[in-house]
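Recall that a protein's primary structure is simply its ordered list of amino acids. Everything else, from secondary elements to tertiary packing, is in principle encoded there. The following example makes that idea concrete.
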Amino acid sequence: MKPEKIIELFKEKFNNSVTNSKIEIKTAGLKKNSYSLIWLEIELKDFKEAVKLLCTIQFPHFAIISGNDTGEEIRLTYHFSLYYGERFKEISLNLTTNLAKNNLKIPTITNLIPGAQTAEREIKEMLGVTVEGLPDLANVFLPNDFPKDVYPLRKDEKGAAKMVNKKEEVEKVD
């Protein structure tokens, strides 16, 4: 399926829930072979259904989740590849959704793509996102005694600055 057709399929299925979409064509290598990147932004209410739809096109290769604290919300982008390993056919598909800071919850996709578990655990511990239905909640990177409610990749009062402030308070007491 061509990138334009994929975007059309998502727009037909989710109508106004697809808030932004774009296709980028890149070239790489000595022979300048081209490949496509699809960027799709979808409302949270349809996020998991969008991943299900993606699985019907061709089972996607899941790479990682990138998260960004924009100030008002947490922006999550799930990075997938379609036709993974098929020479000159591979398409990168980046599915983005936004979570309001007062409701940092997203459903797990591990029942659809089990390999997403580590990345979902990472966004839980680094950004404070509750991944509903995630079967394993243990930290991946942070130690078990890491301060509760401190999230290293947050830019707000729950971010790493909170930990620095706490340390300074402790040093003043000593």
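Residues 46 and 125 are 24 Å apart (CA to CA). The beta strands are 18-28, 33-42, 61-69, 73-82, 91-100, 105-107, 130-132.
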